[in-house]
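[Automated response] Your request has been received and processed.

Submitted sequence:
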Amino acid sequence: MNILDTIIAQKQREVAAKKHAFPVALLERSHLFTRTPRSLAQLLRTSNTGIISEFKRRSPSRSVINETAKVQSITLAYEQAGASGISVLTDTPFFGGSLDDLLLTRSAVGLPLLRKEFIIDGYQIYEAKAYGADAILLIAACLSEKEIIALSTLAKTLSLDVLLEVHDEEELKRSLHPTIDMIGVNNRNLKTFEVDLATSVALSSYIPTTFVKVSESGIRTAEDIKKLRSHGFQGFLIGEQFMKSEDPANEVQQFMKSLV
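Generated structure:
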C-alpha cells in the first residue's frame, strides 16, 4: 500500500467509529452549524495576496514540522499578516491535527477556513460545518467521479465552498462539475510525496475560468507566486514554508512583504 492508500484505510475505520458514537443529528445541534459561512472562492477572486496559510504540525513526508505551535496565536498572525484564508489540518494519525484545531481557529479569526482532511464520507462534511469551516477539501485521487459529485453537492446544500484537489489531467477531467468552486493543483504527488511546481503550470490551461485556480504545495518564494499568477492562479496554499519556521507568525509576515 502507498501512503494515500494507508491514510484512506485508516480514515474509513475512523469515520465508521465516529458515525456510531456521535451521529449527524448531534452535529446539527452545534451552535456553529447555523453560522453563515464566508466564501473562500469569492475572497480569492478579489484578494491582493491569494495566500491560504495552513496550520499543520506533522506530515508523512516530513514527520514533525512544528509540534509545539499554538493554533490560535499562529492562525491569528496569519490573518493579521494579510492571508486570504486559513487551511487547518484535522487528521490526527498522520498530520497531528484535530477538529479542535479547527474550532480554536474559528474562535480566533474571521477569515474563511478550509477543513483540510481526507474526506470520503458525507459525515465529515457535516463535521466541517459543525466545527466552523467555510470550505472543504475533496481529493480526486481517492474519490470516484460519482463520489465527487455526491460529496460536493452535499457541501453546497450546507453552503460550504468546495476545493477539489487534482494531481494530473485525468483527475482534472472528471472533476469539472458546477458544484466545485475551486480547483486545486497539488504539486506534491501523494503517492511519492515528490514536489514540482511544473504540475500547476502544466494543468493550468485545462482549468476553465469558471473555477478559481489554486496551487498547493512547494510554494516558497514571491517569485513562485508571480510565476503561478501568470498562469491564472488566484489562490496559493502554503503550509510547510511557514510552519517549519521557529516563528511562523514572523515568517508569514515577511513573506507577505516580499509580495509587495
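Summary generated for your ticket: The chain has twelve helices and ten strands. The two ends are 44 Å apart (CA to CA).
If you did not submit this request, please reply to this message.
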